[in-house]
Design goal:
This protein is an all-alpha fold. It has five helices and no strands. The chain starts with 20 loop residues before the first helix and ends with a helix.
């Protein structure tokens, strides 16, 4: 999907996503969601999609490079532990 520029409809282009906004995401997800494997193939499966969106709005630049860059590229699959570590870091810094 990356080669066809259909990767990560939930992410902005600067992070390797489609950059299509909320309405575009809704339309794409309506089609992708018809398949059990669709979200994984398009790089917007839970919980990774939600983690990426949280990183976009709440992570420091260093955290974005460490966690978001590989997640957005599809090189890593994050789970709850990553989100928890980020939240703990943000709470300590607050």
């Amino acid at each position: 999907m990356k080669a066809q520029k259909l990767w990560a409809p939930n992410l902005p282009r600067e992070w390797g996503g489609m950059g299509i906004g909320y309405i575009g995401q809704a339309l794409v997800n309506e089609v992708i969601g018809r398949s059990v494997i669709g979200p994984r193939l398009f790089g917007n499966a839970a919980p990774d999609a939600g983690n990426a969106e949280l990183l976009l709005i709440a992570a420091t630049p260093e955290q974005k490079e460490q966690y978001l860059r590989p997640l957005a590229a599809g090189d890593e699959v994050h789970r709850q532990v990553v989100a928890q570590r980020i939240l703990e870091t943000l709470e300590r810094e607050a």
